[in-house]
Amino acid sequence: MTTEFHGRMSRRALLQVCAGLLLTTALPAGAVRAAPSTGYRITATPARARLAGLARPETDVWTYNGTVAGSLVRLRQGVPARLVVKNRLSQETTVHWHGIRLPNEMDGVPGLTQPPIKPGESFVYEFTPPDAGTFWYHPHSNSLEQLGRGLAGAVIVEEREAVAVDRDLLWFLADWRLTEGGGITARFGNRMEAAMSGRVGNTVTLNGRVSEAEAVRAGERVRLRLVNASLARVMALRFDGHRPVIVAIDGQPCDPHEPAAGRILLGPAMRVDLMIDMQGEPGRRYGVIDDFYDGLSYRLTELAYEEGPPLRAHPLAASLDLPRNPLPEPDLATTERHELTLQGGMMSGMMMGGGGMQGGGMMHGMMGMGGGPAWSINGLSMTGDGHAGMAPALTFQRGRSIMLTMRNETAWWHPMHFHGHSMRVLSRNGVAVPHRQWQDTLLMAPKDVVEVAFVADNPGDWMLHCHVLDHQMSGMMTVLRVDGSN
After folding, report:
1. pTM for this prediction
2. pLDDT tens digits, 389-446
3. How far apart are CA 165 and CA 273, in angstroms?
4. What are phi and psi of 165, to 5 degrees?
5. Can you tell me the distance from the alpha carbon of 45 to that of 63, in angstroms, rounded to the nearest whole number?
6. Which residues contact 309 (CB under 8 A, 6 or more apart)?
7. Which domains can be identified in the chain, with CATH numbers?
8. Distance CA 412, CA 194 (A)
9. Are 96 and 140 a contacting pair, CB within 8 Å?
10. DSSP assignment of 204-268, as one string?
11. Cα(43)–Cα(41) distance, rounded to whole angstroms?
């Protein structure tokens, strides 16, 4: 099997992983529904949704408040939030508030930070979001199946001062593996997929529906919030006829810049905020294309311009800069240095054996081709979703500046998510990363070496794992401890 690693995966590689899958594009997407601004109650419950258009059957899904995507949670920066989560599933669950820097006991990792929410029970999450931006929420219990069946929703933490745009839009993106009859293909945790690219679906939705077109108006400035809630699919989005500007990554503002080669690279669990001045012609349509997988590009949707005169003759003069969040700046001169090495998977020359493994919540079928874990970090494999008593790989004293060198020694892509913190991305393969980028989910290409830095200011035991959830479940997970004692 041959694979290209310059922002694309080869056609042959993907077809071998997901033989027979077809990408679907048709019919408009449904609107994202927002919950009330106060007193959030979120219920995990089964429901039915028409994901692939009116001509296709409905799908049995698991949802938050009965909708795909789940209820949009809108919070205010610096304002306390209280969210009551009720479990009406037939299995335990939790909620992880992805990317939000919150207290450890609110992080949603079963056993490690909270007891799981049993069927029929509730859990109250309380925290004050310090950062404005685009975040999301999803389970951290049986996460491969629960997220794969639809449990996910967006969190928007609003800035203290309004941002100068005409519209603020959310595109909550996910892919699904559907049968011809509209059902979700079972058998989560395929061993071969777990050791390769993970469970890539055959149907891509925008705000819970396959999208034919999204309406825009000439002359308007749009803030477009992109969220990739897929289990494994990496996206590279190209906006034909437009010049989007990246203004935030993973909820954290950066220096505004146009994406390299005009493509927005979006790994699973990542978020990117764009500013787009709609300068197309009224009445015309412009494609939004995902061409990450070589030879398997498809149209995600189209920007459909309304008829009529432009909103304004020239782009809005307001600055594209977003107000910065109160992230502590690491002191690079005094950083404590550590390395994390990602290993394992097919084509790497190393499939994990039975040693070097911490179990816990391990799903049947989630091990590598030889029966052991498929992946490791620094030679140790943690499988499942998290559990009590997970020993930390590294321990940091609270307040210390930390530099991590992360090495991907595998032949596959890994979006590495660090709970409870955001990381300043310093360099990639020896080249400085521009635009002051902070991320909580770092997409690493095969053989990448990336340096990041952060201040270990949030005490507790925090997960660091690959957000290709097959990879997490089969070993690519660890714990980093921030010691809060004096």
Report:
1. 0.89
2. 889 999 999 999 999 999 999 999 999 999 999 999 999 999 999 999 999 999 999 9
3. 13
4. -140, 160
5. 5
6. 218, 282
7. 30-161 (2.60.40.420), 336-483 (2.60.40.420)
8. 11
9. yes
10. EEETTB--S-EEE-TT-EEEEEEEE--SS--EEEEETT---EEEEETTEEEEEEPPGGGEEEE-T
11. 7
